């Protein structure tokens, strides 16, 4: 059986993706009775056609939670409008000085050591602190926040089914009460004393004249927590990983950063797509590349593969920091297009030059193969030991 979820394949899924695009761009996987789409055109078309492809999916362990990302119109439109304004390019640009400060503090914390785990010491905490501040979570609560994020992310095991899926769902259910109480307390505080953060926006938001319920606010909280952290962590980890693998491309970037930094970020998003896949359910029988996917079936859309499709990208397996145009679909496409795209691009724009300029002689500190992260739908290193001149 095709197994996308072994450590080896998760580290390097690209030859398997290439084989599948050539042999079976639309594939039925019988044990789980799910379908996979591997090619750019097929994935993009499905992302675009939300009338046919629902984001509400029922797996073996039950339906997806009622969150923005797992909703269809008209509810999707209502939910998205509530937080959209916090993510406009202007609101995001205002965060730049604070992101710089956070990045500087993280580098200050390790610089004398001459070594660090780039993921644990930098790529995880930076986006976590940024989103925590945007939401309005006290800094001191960060360890709790990280643990919750991990448990929510483990819900990705529902894709592979079996015992791991059941365990992940039970663990998440057990956590809910704790998160509920926490978020309720913060909301009560915001009702008394509003602030300029996302929690205040959620407390004050109305849908059809009604305030959001505690459950709905908790849904937003959980989604933003995982969407704002794991994704950008992988973008940063994958960037440094790609530089280590392609030192000539790093030298190109360093020679002309003003021109090449933006295209480098897009190229990492394409070359090592942080969110490798999303799922959908077919609302009707759909014919695609000569195969019929029956109504109700669960489908994985593999953006990680689509972004290496030679029909769309010249030399797709070449990491080219100057690639332009680069129409990758790492942030999805259509009505669910990532709300945090400008935020994560900004974090990368601040982080990459900061790391490269301050950590002189940055190099891998271990020859061991990197271990993939725990959540199954993402691509990136769980750890990345590096050394540099103290
Ligand atoms: C949606 C990827 C960073 C918030 C999405 C989707 C993708 C994605 C592929 C579409 C999901 C679908 O169609 O089912 C990424 C990547 C990121 C990133 C690769 C970083 C490199 C962020 C950040 C935030 C965020 C930093 C927020 C703070 C969201 C939200 C949605 C979303 C709220 C749901 C939008 C909707 O359903 O309308 N993201 N994301 N993302 N992302 Fe991101």
Roughly what fraction of the amino acids lie in strands? Answer: 5-15%
* CATH fold descriptor: Cytochrome p450
CATH architecture: Orthogonal Bundle
Give the helix proportion (percent range).
40-55%
- CATH class designation: Mainly Alpha
Give me the oligomer status.
single chain
Largest sheet: 5 strands, mixed
Q: Averaging pLDDT over every residue, what do you get?
A: 94
Terminal-residue CA separation: 48 Å
The total of beta strands comes to 14
Question: How would the blueprint of this fold be written?
Answer:
Blueprint (H helix, E strand, L loop, with lengths): L6 H5 L2 H10 L2 E4 L4 E4 L2 H9 L4 E2 L3 E2 L2 E2 L11 H10 L4 H5 L2 H15 L4 E3 H6 L1 H11 L6 H12 L8 H31 L5 H7 L1 E2 L2 E2 L2 H32 L1 H9 L1 H15 L5 E6 L3 E3 L2 E3 L4 E5 H4 L34 H18 L4 E2 L20 E3 L3
Parallel strand pairs: 2-12
Antiparallel strand pairs: 1-2, 3-9, 4-5, 6-14, 7-8, 9-12, 10-11, 13-14
Helix pairs in contact: 6-8, 6-16, 8-12, 9-12, 10-11, 10-12, 12-13, 12-14, 12-16, 13-14, 14-16
The protein binds protoporphyrin IX containing FE.
């Amino acid at each position: 059986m095709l197994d996308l979820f072994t450590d080896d394949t998760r580290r390097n899924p690209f030859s398997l993706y290439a084989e599948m695009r050539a042999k079976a761009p639309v594939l039925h996987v019988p044990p789980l009775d799910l379908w996979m789409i591997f090619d750019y055109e097929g994935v993009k078309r499905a992302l675009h056609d939300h009338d046919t492809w629902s984001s509400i999916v029922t797996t073996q362990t039950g339906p997806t939670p009622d969150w923005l990302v797992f909703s269809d119109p008209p509810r999707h439109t209502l939910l998205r409008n509530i937080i959209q304004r916090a993510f406009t390019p202007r609101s995001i640009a205002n965060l730049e000085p604070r992101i710089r400060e956070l990045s500087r503090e993280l580098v200050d914390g390790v610089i004398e050591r001459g070594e660090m785990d780039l993921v644990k010491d930098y790529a995880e905490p930076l986006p976590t602190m940024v989103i925590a501040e945007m939401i309005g979570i006290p800094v001191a609560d960060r360890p709790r926040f990280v643990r919750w994020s991990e448990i929510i992310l483990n819900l990705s095991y529902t894709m592979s089914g079996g015992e791991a899926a059941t365990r992940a769902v039970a663990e998440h259910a057990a956590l809910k009460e704790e998160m509920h109480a926490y978020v309720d307390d913060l909301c009560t505080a915001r009702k008394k004393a509003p602030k300029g953060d996302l929690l205040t926006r959620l407390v004050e938001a109305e849908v059809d004249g009604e305030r959001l319920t505690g459950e709905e606010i908790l849904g937003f909280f959980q989604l933003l927590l995982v969407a704002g952290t794991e994704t950008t962590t992988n973008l940063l980890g994958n960037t440094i990983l790609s530089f280590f693998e392609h030192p000539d491309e790093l030298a190109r970037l360093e020679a002309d950063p003003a021109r090449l930094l933006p295209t480098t970020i897009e190229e990492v998003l394409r070359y090592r797509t942080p969110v490798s896949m999303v799922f959908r359910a077919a609302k009707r029988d759909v014919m695609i590349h000569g195969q019929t996917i029956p109504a109700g079936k669960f489908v994985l859309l593999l953006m990680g593969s689509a972004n290496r499709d030679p029909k769309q990208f010249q030399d797709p397996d070449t990491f080219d920091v100057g690639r332009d145009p680069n129409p990758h679909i790492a942030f999805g496409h259509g009505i669910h297009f990532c709300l945090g795209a400008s935020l994560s691009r900004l974090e990368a724009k601040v982080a990459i030059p900061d790391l490269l300029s301050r950590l002189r002689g940055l190099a891998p500190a271990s020859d061991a193969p990197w271990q993939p992260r725990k959540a199954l739908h993402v691509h990136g290193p769980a750890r990345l030991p590096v050394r540099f001149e103290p």
